[in-house]
Amino acid sequence: MSSHVPGMRRLAVVIGASQLVVYGCTYYLPAVLAAPAAADLHVSRAALLGAFSWALLVAGMGAPIVGRRIDRAGGRGVLAASCVVMAAGLVMLALSHGLALWYAGWVVLGAGMALGLYDAAFATIGVLFGHDSGRAIMGVTLIAGFASSVFWPLGTALEARWGWRGMLLAYAALLLAANLPAMLLGVPAGAAHRRGGGAAVDGAHPPVANPGRALALLAVFFTLRWLVTSGVAVLILRLLEGRGLSPAQAVGVAAMLGPGQVLGRVVEWSFSRRVSLFTRARAGALLMPFAALLLLLPGVLAASAFALLYGMSNGILTINRGTLPMALFGRAGYAQRLGWLATPALLAQAASPPLAAMLLDTVDTRGVILVAALLGVTAALFLWLLGRAADAPRAAPGARETSQHSPAS
Fold first, then answer.
1. What does the longest C-alpha to C-alpha distance in the chain come to?
2. Which domain holds residue 354?
3. pLDDT for residue 392
């Protein structure tokens, strides 16, 4: 176990709690905000939600720039700046009386998301702890995985009490009063990993033989998976009702996705010392198409199994966003590579909801499920090719596995 473990655990708690707030105030915001804001501004929900897609585009374009900054100077300043930028975007939304300022606010929020979501958080941990960062990344995702469970009911309660504008101002205050000091006081300054021990750790983990090809394969894998994940998130209730569930049953089954994600992260954590990283990643990738095929079966039980397994797959995938690049490429340039990987994935997330809606209007629910399963299998194939091509380390980052599995095993 690394000598940095006590500091790593504290950092995982600090960043995990901040990510819970950040995701609740940005990524999960439209679910609570869209209906009351659309009614007040006298515009359609589609027009309002289009701004969220713009925010994802902005985040995707800014991710490589943020990654380069974290590689050079560490992540404390970036994560602290994200709190201020996100708060400013939320205030702009609260002051909106038309679509112009609304879209401008979401552009600012998109910049804040590039500065402060998972990719920036993982990059911050990676430059501090290198190949010891895997378990810290798992810890962050375990805490942040409850963001929707906390902020959907919290946002609903705040909106009912203070209105949607008051809710947004409360979120902005939370970012400035809680997250900002936590980032300034709880995240080490600079690229602290350079102070001793880093070279030895990196030397034990040689990079892949063909990093360009490996990066491309990994980018395709994440892009395909986020394309499916974002589309399913938008259509989940329509898909479940299309398979014969009542509206109440569909809501209950959809609510199981969050616990499934947390369960997947717990399983990933539990097996990180005994099973190689690529084996765990492949298992997580294959859970998704298997879950989709279960949804073709009738009944609430099959739909519930789909929700749990699909959620587990997404939970494992979130961890893989941070651990696979570190295992394949090492610490040098890690943050910038995360930015490169984030760009096509975020662009896919932005494009997926309208594409998924058009697909569902063209084919029936069964056809949408089969397309999702096919994309999931294709993504898993790219991950298999990556494992075959990689001359990667024997142990998963952060786990110091005692087994002698190679990542390609």
1. 61
2. 206-389
3. 42
Structural domain contains residue 406: no
DSSP conformation letters of 57-111: HHHHHHHHHHHHHHHHH-SHHHHHHHHHHHHHHHHHHHT-SSHHHHHHHHHHHHH
CB 122 within 8 A of CB 338: yes
Residue 195: per-residue pLDDT: 42
The CA angle 295-49-113, to the nearest 5 degrees, is: 95
- Indicate whether 351 belongs to any domain: yes
pLDDT in tens, 17-64: 999 999 989 988 887 888 889 889 998 877 887 888 889 889 888 888
Q: How many other CB atoms are there within 10 angstroms of residue 17's CB atom? A: 17
Burial of 237 (0-12, 13-18, 19+ CB in 10 A): middle
Q: 390 in the Ramachandran plot: left (φ > 0), alpha (ψ -120 to 50) or beta?
A: beta
**Would residue 282 count as lying in a domain?**
yes
**Contact yes or no for 345/60 (Cβ under 8 A):** yes
What six digits make up the tokens of 214? 């490996």
Q: Burial of 216 by CB count in 10 Å (0-12 exposed, 13-18 middle, 19+ buried)?
A: middle
CB 82 within 8 A of CB 123: no
Nearest-angstrom CA–CA distance, 152 and 326? 33
Residue 401 domain-assigned (yes or no): no
Q: Can you read off the two tokens belonging to residue 90?
A: 């939320």
In Å, what is the CA distance from 118 to each residue of 17, 35, 114, 184, 358? 12, 27, 9, 18, 29
